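Note to self: keep these together.
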Amino acid sequence: MAKSVRLRALRRGERRVLQAKVGDRRLSVRLHHRYRVIAEVASGRSMADAADRVGCAVTMAYEWVHRFNESGFTTFERASNPQDRRSYGVALTQSGVHLARELRAASEQLERDFFASLSQSEQESLHVLLLKLYRGSEGMDDGKSTE
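Structure:
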């Protein structure tokens, strides 16, 4: 009996990502196939036709559609760990890299605003004192003796 997996509707942002990824010739063949399966099914092709056009097994087409339905494209670019195939390496997507840059800039601005009332030498003194407190407290919470 055939699996009953249908592609969910793609959001506008997902359509943009899909269009960019299908046209990205830097992707590995395997990764490109994953995006193409979604593109083929989204264009109205059956799962079998999509698999045939992409050149993958129908069961893989079902797997990628199911995976997309569950978590969007977030798991499409998970790469196996070359040292241990049972685990995965994790990398940020382009949007994740962009968000990380935005958050880093916001964090740096927040830090500048927070310490604006202190002079540079006061900030350095505070840093030294906090570091001294931190180093003195290491091992206190886990029951280890500091002696």
